[in-house]
């Protein structure tokens, strides 16, 4: 028997022992859990029998409350225990099937022997609870596995730095408790295993990469040196994957203070939410909160405006034929996304703090109760040294006091008497009961009827004043919309050349109650500054994926709404597809992250696509030569030049057939616009089974999809067929990043059709890196 086999045998024996121990633990826990479950059922059934309910006097009532509290605490405690046991059983079941993925032997400085350390998704102690049989991949010592190859190594923990020598590094693939393969690895973590993983078919759900995290990804995952961690990473470099592992890592590191619902992931589209939803549960953690910027703003703005989303904005721009119209819209978008515009707004706000604030009158039953001018006078009577937000709060408090006084006066008005006449017997009975409880012992001359009418008047008016008071509490008396409109009506310093045009277009939109995407952040910023910020102090960590799509203004705004959160900002400047971010400063720009508290990292190795695809795509972007493909070979990309639309459709169908024969299950036909996607879908739908992805799609499955370029970001497919990569479709320099994004979605195969001459981005690529075929009947 070879040394390897022997070693494999003994490794399998160790796994078998672990499985036995885990089996025993699961049996014991299940029995215990059964008992707890029965107790819960019993407690729920007998809840009211076991509490003494007696409300005869205050002491008895107090005792009743205490008894209910005690009983529900007992129930709550049992339910929590059941929850924890359930979780532990699930964790143990996972360990049983795949206990670990790695082993390192580490000889600590000053020690004689190496100790084997096995790494898994969760830790496991031996039965004496003395030694770790498995270390959690997030434990400090586990970083040795990701950071070093055999030789001198060290790791840092809260106790300090431990130095030593790594004498072995081994990788396992274990399925159903059996070793499928096992490699002793050198420099990088399991090139072979990684190759195998990356060579698999695409999955409609992203997977955890815990067994094959690469060195630079590990640094990203564990970095806690700064408040803002900024990651510029090439397409397919594992930004999203590493971000999710990082979330799991932070949850482990700060398990006493951080919970999944205190972390927020901003993703590029609703589809993405479902795409990444399995990763954290796979790692034994709960999913963190997820949203898109659009979902956030939509919730904030509600129905008061029709809100354009970033996709509609992009689609509108991509379908604009008139170049000057395009230039105008883009210039307005870029200006409104800039910090220069934010500075203009700040100057406007500071003027408002002295004069010009707009308020709404408080009206009640068609009459003006408090005039806007009185609110304004009160606001400006407050000391200017008090911040605007606090002056607004004080004004709201003043209004509430005023409303309470007016409410008392209102009770005497005729309409109240009319309302009382219309009341049913029930209302009278209710106040009579109140009277009996409170005043039955009063002297004989107490007028019960008068009391009744007074009480009813009080109730009727209070009910009608309630919405008014609530509106004041929500700062609805501040006329945000009018002040936002005034921003575009007033003269300002340092405006761009086309300011007048920007203003007139914005005012037309606002008049039609339309808020363009570029106006959304400025509008919310103005609203928050005037009517009180909606900052969220509960969120402790924010992840922003595809950060190249966010403007510096959006970054400032996100900092305001999450004032205490740390941020992980990930993106790729070469995939900036929105007008506000192309050739503009974006949230990702290093110039915004120079100060203390910011740490910028770069990921240059690309894992998603075969090296042929990466070699091809990297030529389309500036500094593409810095991108290093992972060594996984495949076919060279194919460019098929056709001369008629029917040829393109036929060609696509043939390619799909071929790709399916090769076993590819997830195939995307990517078009530039949604309009084009719809057309392709209509033309192909009768011939092959496929799905159309739109901005409202929430999930995607294995299969063939037609998807517009800007919705394909962040996700990946086994094979990508680019629909019409001709110079008629990708005709402008500003579409370079869009084109690059589309091509980099392919894992194994990339096929580009071009109806006529190919686009410039393709012409620039070295012909030796792809095949060209002229297809004609
Ligand atoms: N260390 C790794 N081990 C295994 N797979 C990896 C690793 N790193 C990345 N991958 C795989 O590479 C692919 C791309 O990863 P991911 O989507 O996270 O990259 P990205 O940088 O966010 O891409 P993009 O910016 O192009 O959307 C995924 O299939 C992911 O599972």
From TrEMBL:
Residues 212-610 form the UvrD-like helicase ATP-binding domain. It catalyses: Couples ATP hydrolysis with the unwinding of duplex DNA by translocating in the 3'-5' direction; ATP + H2O = ADP + phosphate + H(+). Keywords: ATP-binding, Coiled coil, Helicase, Hydrolase, Isomerase, Nucleotide-binding. Residues 1-28 form a coiled coil. It comes from the Bacteria. ATP binds at residues 233-240. Its EC number is 5.6.2.4. It holds the Pfam family UvrD_C. The keyword Cell wall biogenesis/degradation does not apply. InterPro entries: DExx_box_DNA_helicase_dom_sf, DNA_helicase_UvrD-like_C, DNA_helicase_UvrD/REP, HelD_bacillota, P-loop_NTPase, UvrD-like_ATP-bd, UvrD-like_helicase_C. Belongs to the helicase family. UvrD subfamily. NCBIfam families: HelD_BACSU (NF041464). This is DNA 3'-5' helicase. It comes from Alkalicoccobacillus gibsonii. The lineage of its organism: Bacteria, Bacillati, Bacillota, Bacilli, Bacillales.
């Amino acid at each position: 028997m070879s040394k390897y086999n022997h070693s494999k045998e003994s490794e399998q024996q160790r796994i078998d022992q672990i499985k036995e121990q885990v089996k025993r633990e699961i049996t014991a826990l299940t029995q215990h859990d059964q008992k707890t479950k029965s107790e819960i059922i019993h407690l729920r059934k007998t809840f009211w029998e076991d509490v003494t309910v007696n409300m005869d006097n205050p002491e008895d009532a107090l005792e009743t409350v205490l008894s209910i509290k005690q009983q529900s605490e007992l129930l709550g405690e049992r339910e929590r225990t059941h929850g924890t046991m359930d979780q532990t059983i699930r964790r143990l079941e996972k360990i049983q099937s795949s206990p670990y993925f790695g082993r390192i032997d580490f000889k600590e400085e000053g020690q004689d022997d190496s100790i084997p350390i096995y790494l898994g998704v969760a830790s496991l102690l031996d039965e004496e609870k003395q030694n770790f049989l498995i270390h959690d991949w997030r434990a400090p010592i586990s970083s040795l596995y990701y950071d070093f190859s055999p030789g001198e190594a060290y790791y840092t923990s809260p106790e300090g730095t431990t130095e030593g020598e790594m004498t072995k590094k081994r990788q396992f693939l274990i399925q159903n408790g059996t070793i499928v393969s096992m490699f002793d690895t050198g420099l990088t973590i399991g090139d072979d295993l990684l190759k195998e993983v990356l060579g698999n078919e695409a999955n409609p759900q992203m997977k955890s990469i815990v067994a094959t995290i690469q060195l630079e990804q590990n640094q990203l995952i564990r970095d806690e040196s700064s408040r803002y961690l900024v990651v510029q990473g090439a397409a397919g470099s594992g930004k999203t994957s590493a971000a999710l592992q990082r979330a799991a890592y932070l949850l482990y590191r700060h398990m006493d203070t951080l919970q999944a619902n205190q972390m927020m992931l901003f993703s590029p589209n609703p589809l993405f939410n479902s795409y990444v939803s399995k990763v954290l549960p796979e790692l034994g953690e709960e999913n963190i909160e997820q949203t898109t910027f659009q979902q956030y703003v939509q919730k904030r703005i509600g129905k008061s405006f029709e809100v354009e989303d970033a996709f509609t904005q992009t689609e509108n721009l991509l379908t604009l034929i008139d170049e000057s119209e395009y230039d105008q819209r883009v210039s307005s978008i870029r200006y409104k996304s800039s910090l220069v515009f934010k500075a203009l707004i700040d100057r406007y706000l500071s003027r408002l703090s002295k004069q010009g604030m707009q308020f709404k009158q408080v009206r009640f039953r068609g009459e003006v109760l408090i005039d806007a001018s009185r609110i304004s006078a009160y606001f400006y009577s407050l000391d200017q040294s008090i911040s605007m937000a606090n002056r607004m709060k004080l004004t709201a408090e003043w209004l509430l006091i005023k409303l309470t006084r007016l409410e008392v006066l209102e009770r005497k008005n005729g309409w109240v008497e009319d309302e009382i006449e219309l009341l049913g017997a029930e209302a009278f009975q209710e106040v009579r009961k109140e009277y009996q409880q409170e005043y039955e012992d009063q002297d004989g001359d107490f007028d019960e009827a008068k009391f009744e009418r007074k009480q009813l008047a009080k109730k009727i008016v209070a009910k009608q004043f309630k919405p008014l008071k609530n509106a004041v509490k929500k700062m609805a008396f501040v006329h945000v919309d009018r002040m936002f409109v005034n921003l575009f009506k007033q003269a300002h310093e340092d405006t761009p050349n086309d300011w007048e045009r920007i203003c007139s277009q914005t005012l037309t939109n606002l008049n039609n109650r339309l808020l363009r995407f570029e106006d959304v952040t400025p509008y919310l910023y103005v609203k928050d500054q005037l009517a009180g910020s909606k900052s969220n102090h509960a969120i402790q960590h924010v992840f922003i994926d595809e950060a190249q799509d966010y403007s510096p203004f959006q970054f400032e705004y996100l900092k305001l709404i999450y004032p205490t959160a740390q941020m992980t900002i990930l993106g790729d400047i070469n995939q900036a597809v929105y007008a506000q971010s192309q050739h503009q400063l974006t949230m990702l720009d290093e110039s915004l992250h120079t100060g203390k508290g910011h740490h910028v990292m770069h990921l240059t190795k690309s894992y998603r696509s075969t090296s042929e695809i990466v070699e091809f795509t990297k030529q389309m972007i500036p500094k593409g030569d810095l991108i290093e493909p992972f060594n996984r070979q495949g076919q060279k990309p194919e460019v098929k030049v056709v001369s008629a639309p029917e040829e393109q459709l036929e060609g696509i169908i043939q390619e799909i057939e071929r790709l399916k024969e090769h076993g590819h299950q997830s195939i995307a036909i990517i078009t530039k616009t949604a309009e084009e996607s719809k057309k392709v879908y209509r033309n192909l739908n009768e011939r092959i089974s496929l799905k159309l992805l739109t901005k409202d799609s929430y999930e995607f499955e294995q299969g063939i999809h037609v998807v517009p370029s800007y919705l394909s970001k962040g996700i990946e497919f086994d094979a990508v067929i680019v629909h019409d990569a001709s110079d008629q479709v990708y005709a402008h320099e500003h579409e370079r990043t869009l084109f690059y994004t589309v091509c980099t979605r392919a894992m194994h195969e990339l096929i580009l059709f071009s109806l006529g001459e190919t686009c410039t981005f393709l012409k620039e690529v070295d012909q030796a890196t792809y095949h060209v075929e002229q297809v004609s009947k």
